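Instructor's aside before we start: the two examples that follow are unrelated to each other. I chose them only because their records fit on one page, so don't look for a connection. First example below.
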Amino acid sequence: RNLTGKYNTFLGAETGYNNTEGNENTFIGFTAGQQNTTASYNTFIGSGAGTQNTTGENNTATGAGALYNNTTGSRNTAIGRLSLHNNTEGEANTATGIWSLEANTTGSNNTATGHKALLNNTEGSDNTASGINALLNNRSIQQQLICLQFLKHF
C-alpha cells in the first residue's frame, strides 16, 4: 500500500500495512505501525507498538503495546510494555517503565519513570512522577511536582 512514502523499514506481519505517504519510519513487530498513513519519523518496536497511529509524528515506542492507541499524538516516547498504551492525542510525553502513563489519553508534557508511574493519568498535563507507583491515581491534575516513591522498608 505504500504509495509515495520513502525510506521506511517495516519488518513483521501487518507492520506498516496502511502506510501511504509516511516517510522515514521504522516499524518492527506484529502490527507495529499498522494504521500509520501519512505520519513520518516514527520508531515502533514490539508487537502492537504504535498500532493505531495514523498521523502522529516523531514518536518512539519500544515494548509490546507501547503507544498502541496513539492516533495523532506527536513527540511521545514510550519505553516498556503497555507504556502510554491508551494515549490518543497527548503530545510530548515520556513514559519509561511497564504500564507507565498507561491510561493517558490527551494529557501532554508528562514524564513518568518507573513501573506504573502515572498509571491512571488520563488528561493531566505537566506532571513528573518518578518511582514505582508514583502518582498512580492522578487522573487530571495539572502541574504536579515530582513524586518519589521510596521503599517502605529498608
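Example two begins here.
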Amino acid sequence: ARLTSLTGMGDLTTTNAVVIHDNPALTSLTEMHITHVLGNVDIHGNGLTTIAPLWSVTRIDGDLVVDGNPSLTRVDGLAPGLRVAGTFTLTNNSVLQSVYPLYVGTSAANLVVMGNTSLSRYRVDHLNSSHRAQFPSIVAQSNGPGTSNPENHGN
C-alpha cells in the first residue's frame, strides 16, 4: 500500500532522516512538523503539488533532494532561513515553475537544479547571478526555456 497522508507524524520534531518515495496518491505533507533533520531529506516520486509543510524545517544537516515529483509546481513552503548543510538537489520535476523560496533566505553548500523542463531558465540564471552567497556552488542545466517573466522578490 502507498501513503495518502502523513497522519501520525505530527508530534515528531527532530529525526535522523526523512525519506518519502513513490507515493503518487500523497498530495500533501500537512502532518509534518519536523524542525531539524540530522541527516538527509529525500522526497521522490510523490503526487505533491507543493512541499509547503516543510515550512517548519529550519535545519537539515545532510542533503535535501526533491526529485521526480511529476505534479510539483512550486517549492513554496521552505522555511525562511532554511539551512541545508549539504546539497539541495531539485531535479526532474517536470511541471515545476517556481523557485521563489530559494530567493529569500534558503541556503545550501551546493545547489543542483536540473531537468525541470517547465522551470524558466531565467529563474535559474537569476539564482546563479544574484544568490551566490546563499549557494556558493550552483549546477543548473536542462531546465526549461528562457522567459522575460521573472519572479518578483524585491531585488
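The chain has a mean pLDDT of 86.
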